Every structure is written in structure tokens, then in C-alpha cells.
Amino acid sequence: MPIPFPPLPFAENALEPAMSVETLRYHHGKHHKSYVEKLNKLIAGTGYDTMPLRAIVERSAKARKDRKIYTNAAQAWNHAFFWDSLAPQSESPGKMTAEGIAAAFGSHDKFAEKFKKTAMDTFGSGWVWLYQKDGKFAIVGTPDGDPCFLRHGEPVFVTDVWEHAYYIDHRNEREAFVDTVLSKLVNWRAVEGRLNALKDRQEAKADIRRQAGGKGVEPWFIA
Amino acid sequence: MKRILAAGLGAALLAVLVAATANPGASAPPPDIPLEQHKGPYTLAPLPYATDALNPVIDTATMEIHHGKHHQAYVTNLNAALEANPALKDKTLGEIFAGVSQYDAAVRNNAGGHWNHTLFWRTMAPPGKGGAPSEVLRAQIEKDFGSFDAFRKAFQAAGMKQFGAGWVWLIWADERLQITTTPNQDNPLMAVAAKRGKPILGNDLWEHAYSLKHQNRRDAYLAGWWDVVNWTEVTRPFYRAAAVPG
Q: In the CATH hierarchy, which fold is given to the domain comprising A95-206?
């Protein structure tokens, strides 16, 4: 079954003027679409074509010969996660998010500063992630198409820092782009929802371990 | 020995004089000392043509930002990185590349960015003004790739295969011409390169090199770029790398 190309979760002019229609048409309609199309061509007739997208990323990451499948699957996943991280009406962080940010970075301003610095230090093409590891927030930049969940932790927010993400609206000014995203476009509701889902999963895992009575049962079936 | 040296110098001087008189209206050639033998602080050289001169292959806006903003930032940040690492101040760019893994990422990225773009600008010319490869270079390309066309196809294919930001290179290594790619602003002179060699020609695969005009179509950019390659200039690093008496 082919991996679907997800539509934008908002109208293509909904992020104006922070992110232009032109950017979204190219970024979603050309770049993202092309990753999905290339991926579907590459996986047709292989074992990968029955797997969900994230599982394709995780498995192909371990197989050197599947490097092309990996890069296209990872970019398909990253872009879908990116669009779901943005909103036309950026509210303010939810309760869990705000507490997590204060605990990990000291204040919201310090979080934003660190996120921007990480974006500037991620040389070349890449992604900047806010993620959770052992119940705590952290920020990391990953090169090219590498998603955060492979080596770092579970992401709750991401910004694309490939030049195609900002060149139409900001030219070479990556910092201005990241600043705009952070101050105007973050879907804080989605971030809070992801944190809640992570918490539920962690609690379910703990329950299963408890019920197993310390017999070393690992609830591998919960991601 | 001394006499041979003197004769050699005399011949070189004569060659310079002949070149100067044969082509009196020509602008001064780029400095004969390759950039990798230079020490900082570095400056951004002006483009050897106007920013609109490569139209329609490379658009004016791309040229203005690419040279005036991106390349300028590499120069500025390289000088700042050298200020912050006084031990590097007496080293040439080539020496920095040779020991690049020991230094800050800022040194590696900005030194590479400056060197790579310098070669890039020099080896381009307005469409139709790029001349042709010298006979020696063409013969070497045909020997190593089968044909000139096969070389161009292989260069474009390698450029497509480099995922994310980087460069595709024609290099001289192991006594032959080869194609290789590097990520980000690395180059084949760096000790960290997967394949080391002397770069003859490089094409920039960063999205800033092509996305204003071609969006996500790197393939279209790579295929069209040949129209602005300055083969007369490409011959120069080739002769130097391959020690061809030019």
C-alpha cells in the first residue's frame, strides 16, 4: 500500500504573511510530495510497502543498501510532522509544555534562544527538534533528513532548516525564519497533545511492567 | 643547476611577456598563487563578471545573494574563527584543510565555504564565453570517462546522489580525473573527505545555488550549468594539479 501524501492541515494562505503561499506551494506541493512519490516508487514490491511510514524509517535506517528508501521515508515523515507542528493561530504553550520548558530551559525566552542557536549551528541542511527524553525536554539539530526519534528521543516540535524552507520568504536569513516560526507559527496545542500521548504511553508501559511483577517483560509493542 | 633554473625563469618570464603582448586588452589573470596557499585575514574578491552576466543559466538575484551574502558570510566568519584560534593565524588554507578534524566546526565550515566559492566563481563565465577544454584536458576526460558526454552525465548523476547540502567535484587523484562529492562546505582537500584529491571543477549543490530559479529541480540546474562553465579557467587548476606544463 502506498504511503499517502498528506494534505496541509491548514489552507495554503493560512500562514500569511509569516509563511507565504509560494513557500507552501513549493515546500509542501513539490518538495514534500516528491519525497513521498520517490519513496513509493522505491518500496513498491519490497517488504517495506506493507509497513507504516515510521517503521519504514526505523528499519531502513539500519540497512546500508536501503539508504535511498531511508532518506525519502525520513523526509516524508519529517515534513508531515513539521506541517502538524504549525498553526495559523499560534496560542500559548499548554500547561505541561510550559512546565516542561521552564524545567528544562529556565524560561520561554531561554528556550527560544537555545532553539535559534541550535538552528544556526546546524550547518547545511537539517532539522531542529524539541524532544522529550526520560520525561525531560531537550533541543537537538539533526543533519539532512535524520529524524530525532532514531538517536535522541520522542519529538514534540520541529522546524525545517533546509534552505528550501525559508529561501523564498527570508533568503539567507535562517535566524529570521526560525524567529518567525517560534513567535508566530508554533502549534502549541499539537505540542501539548503529543506530550499527553507520550505520557499515556509511558504510563501504559509502566502498568504492564508492574503487572508482570518484575519478570523482565518489556512492552515492546508500545512505541 | 643554476643555469637550468635561470633558463626556466627566463622562459617563464618570456611566456608572461608573450601572453601580455598577445592579449593586450585582456584583464589581469587571477593571482597565480592558488587560494589554498594563502593566509588570512581573507577578503571577498569581486566577481569576475557582473551579477547578471550568467543569465539565463543563473539568475541575478541568486548571484547577488550567493556572492554578496553567503560567500561574504563565509569570509567574515572565517576571519572571526581565525581570530578565535590564534594558533591558526600563520597557517595557509591548505594547511588548515590538511588538519581540519582538529579544529572547530566554524573553521572547517567557513574555510571550506570560502575556498569552494572562490573556485566556483572563477570557473564560470557568461553563456557562450566559457571556451572549450584544452586539448590535454579533453583527452584526459575522454581517457578517464570514455567521452566528454559520459563525464557530464556522471558529474550530474553524482550531484543528484549527494543528499542535502554539498558539492560535486571533478578532482585529480591517483594520476587520473575522478568525480566525487562532499557534504556541506567540505572539499576534497580536507583530510576528512571520503576521497581526497585536487579539485579541478566544483558545482555547488546547496539549495541557495539554484532554488530561486529551479525550486526543487536540482537535476535541471545541474544539466543547464554546463553553459556557464569557464573551460579556459578550469584548465588552469587541472594543469597545476596534474603538473601538465602549461
A: minor pseudopilin epsh fold (3.55.40)
A6's grid cell: 498528506
Chain A residues in contact with B109 by the CB 8 A cut-off are 123
B165/A163 Cβ within 8 A: yes
Domains of chain B (ranges plus CATH)?
A: 1-24+60-246 (3.55.40.20)
Residue B25 has pLDDT above 60, yes or no: no
Nearest CA of chain B to the CA of A52: how many Å? 23
- State whether B206 and A144 contact (CB < 8 Å): no
Task: Give the side-chain half-sphere CA count within 13 A for A58.
Answer: 8
Q: How is chain A split into domains, by residue range?
A: 21-83, 95-206
Q: What is the pTM of this model?
A: 0.90
Cα A191 to Cα A35, A103, A130, B77: the distances in Å are 25, 16, 9, 35
Q: Which three cell numbers stand for residue A14?
A: 493560512
Kindly tell me if the per-residue pLDDT of A64 is higher than 90.
yes
pLDDT digits (tens, 9 = 90+) for B145-167: 999 999 999 999 999 999 999 99
* ipTM over the 0.95 cut-off: no
User: For the domain bounded by A21-83, which CATH number is listed?
Assistant: 1.10.287.990
